[in-house]
């Protein structure tokens, strides 16, 4: 028995119901993939900033190498330092020029003298960053100390929010979609009650009758999942330049998006779709198809 | 062999559809069930098709009590029984070919077997040229031929017909009866509930007359006499 042919026929004969079901599924899976990408992206960004527990001390003009060495030695003795990177005035200018290579006006105005030398201090743990920054600030040759504590804190909060909010919204949509499948398949079973009775009299087994309805539910969910996945990645691809531009170095932690991630997300979507489709249909056939 | 033993069917405390029915139908017999409306003919057929269960008594088919069959065994039992109804009960969204093929599909036949057998049966029933039509596009006679083809294509040992000529004109009714008689001649047991006096009287087959849920008469070459 060609059950797939039967499902195809059922769908073709009720195109509006099929379209409505697929659109609902699309909405669910579009949200699911969007939230998964957001959660993944924010986690990666968080890891990026956390992997760079870095404070940057900017030195006053005239700071000698010996002053810098003395500060480094003092900090090493705390046992909290993983590495240092000294950026001289010339190196700072090189970095500045590289970042603003497309803006000649900004390049003209800046010379090495304007930019301060700095020391990038990486700690073993992000928790130590505040203490280290406090020590460095006390040094008379240090003009200013910046560290990404606020960025990490905000990002951490945002990640938690995305997970909670995303989880709730996706949870709600999954439940809603399952109910839609239950309603749709239930409705189809009800309008085909006489047909089902006849099939039973012909000796059709329970599963022979149930399978087309199960497959139909799975079909709507998987098509919705594939569409949701596709649209999400199309949008991500479209907005990639804007996002990269705004994220700066942090974008390196997100791009290039690996095929493994793309296919992995598709797999998650399809498995969720099969679960929603089969569970919803099964509830419907158990509820409405008393065999 | 079909055997009803002390079979009663009640709907609620006050309505008795069948009362202590004892009836035996041998293999390959042709039996007319006659009686006024509400006599219990359709109820008896529904019990035999295992659509409902008796309130008491046993129904043995080939030695198996179908009243105690587990639900998951009912489909297998029904594959031994063909059904024909007054309103044909064809699936409206399937063609003649698909309706007839369904009987073999539920039996798990291969596509090759189905194609071959459906073609043979549709030609035998002279509806091969109607194979692509939907039930609403058929005449009453063609629809009933399709229903009978669907009922017998799986080679059931029993054919139950519940007023199969009820909605047909006299000429078509005769052709349907000839078809059922032919099926009976192949060795299939046919039990047919009918109100058609002319057909019953002409065919001179076994006639079981029911009235108020009881067997009033059971004659080997009976006539349509419901009083």
Task: Write up what this structure looks like.
The complex is a heterodimer of chains A (291) and B (227). By secondary structure, chain A is α+β, with helices and mostly antiparallel strands. Chain A folds into two domains: 3-49 and 152-288, no CATH class; 53-147, Alpha-Beta Plaits (2-Layer Sandwich), CATH 3.30.70. Chain A is built from ten helices and four strands. In chain A, helix 2 (15-50) packs across helix 9 and helix 9 packs antiparallel against helix 10. Chain A is elongated, with a radius of gyration of 30 Å. Chain B is α/β, with parallel strands linked by helices and 227 residues long. Chain B folds into two domains: 2-80 and 156-219, P-loop containing nucleotide triphosphate hydrolases (Rossmann fold, 3-Layer(aba) Sandwich); 94-139 and 146-153, no CATH class. Chain B has helices at residues 41-48, 74-78, 96-105, 111-124, 140-152, 170-185, 197-203; strands spanning 2-11, 15-25, 30-34, 56-61, 64-65, 81-85, 158-162, 189-193, 206-211, 214-219. Chain B has a six-stranded mixed sheet, with helices on both faces. A four-stranded antiparallel sheet of chain B has the order 2-1-4-5, covered by helices on one side. In chain B, a hairpin with a 2-residue loop joins strand 9 (206-211) and strand 10 (214-219). In chain B, helix 3 crosses helix 4, helix 3 (96-105) runs parallel beside helix 5 (140-152) and helix 5 (140-152) packs parallel to helix 6. Chain B is globular. Chain A binds chain B through residues 1-2, 9, 13, 194-195, 197-206, 208, 291, and chain B through 49, 51, 71-72, 75-79, 83, 89-93, 102-103, 105-108, 111, 150, 154.
């Amino acid at each position: 028995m060609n059950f797939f042919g039967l499902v195809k026929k059922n769908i073709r004969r009720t195109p509006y119901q099929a379209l409505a079901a697929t659109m609902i599924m699309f909405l669910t899976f579009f949200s699911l993939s969007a939230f998964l990408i957001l959660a993944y992206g924010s986690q990666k960004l968080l890891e990026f900033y956390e992997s760079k527990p870095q404070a940057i001390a900017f030195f006053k003009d005239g700071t000698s190498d010996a002053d810098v060495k003395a500060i480094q030695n003092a900090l090493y003795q705390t046992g909290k330092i993983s590495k240092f990177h000294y950026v001289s005035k010339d190196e700072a200018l090189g970095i500045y020029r590289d970042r603003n290579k497309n803006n000649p006006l900004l390049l003209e105005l800046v010379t090495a003298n304007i930019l301060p030398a700095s020391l990038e201090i990486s700690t073993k743990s992000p928790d130590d960053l505040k203490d280290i920054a406090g020590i460095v600030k006390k040094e008379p040759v240090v003009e200013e100390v910046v560290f990404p504590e606020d960025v990490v804190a905000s990002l951490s909060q945002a990640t938690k929010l995305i997970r909670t909010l995303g989880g709730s919204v996706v949870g709600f949509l999954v439940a809603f979609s399952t109910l839609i499948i239950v309603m749709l398949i239930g409705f189809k079973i009800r309008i085909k009650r006489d047909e089902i009775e006849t099939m039973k009299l012909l000796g059709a087994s329970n599963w022979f009758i149930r399978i087309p309805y199960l497959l139909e539910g799975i079909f709507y969910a998987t098509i919705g999942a594939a569409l949701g996945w596709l649209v999400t990645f199309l949008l991500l691809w479209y907005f990639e330049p804007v996002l990269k531009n705004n994220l700066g170095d942090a974008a390196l932690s997100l791009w290039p998006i690996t095929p493994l991630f793309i296919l992995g997300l598709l797999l998650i979507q399809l498995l969720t779709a099969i679960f929603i489709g089969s569970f919803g249909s099964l509830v419907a056939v158990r509820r409405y198809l008393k065999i | 062999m079909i055997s009803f033993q002390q079979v009663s069917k009640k709907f609620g405390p006050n309505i008795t559809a069948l009362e202590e029915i004892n009836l035996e139908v041998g293999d390959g017999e042709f039996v007319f069930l006659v009686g006024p409306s509400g006599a219990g003919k359709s109820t008896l057929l529904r019990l035999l098709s295992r659509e409902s269960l008796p309130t008491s008594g046993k129904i043995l088919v080939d030695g198996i009590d179908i009243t105690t069959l587990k639900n998951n065994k009912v489909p297998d039992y029904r594959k031994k029984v063909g059904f024909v109804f007054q309103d044909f009960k064809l699936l409206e969204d399937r063609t003649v070919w698909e309706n007839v093929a369904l009987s073999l599909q539920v039996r798990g036949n291969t596509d090759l077997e189905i194609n071959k057998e459906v073609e043979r049966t549709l030609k035998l029933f002279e509806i091969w040229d109607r194979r692509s039509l939907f039930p609403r596009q058929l005449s009453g006679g063609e629809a009933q031929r399709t229903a009978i083809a669907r009922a017998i294509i799986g080679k059931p040992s029993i054919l139950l017909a519940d007023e199969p000529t009820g909605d047909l004109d006299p000429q078509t009714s005769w052709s349907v009866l000839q078809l059922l008689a032919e099926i009976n001649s192949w060795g299939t047991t046919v039990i047919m509930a009918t109100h058609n006096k002319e057909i019953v009287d002409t065919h001179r087959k076994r006639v079981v007359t029911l009235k108020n849920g009881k067997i009033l008469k059971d004659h080997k070459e009976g006539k349509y006499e419901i009083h």
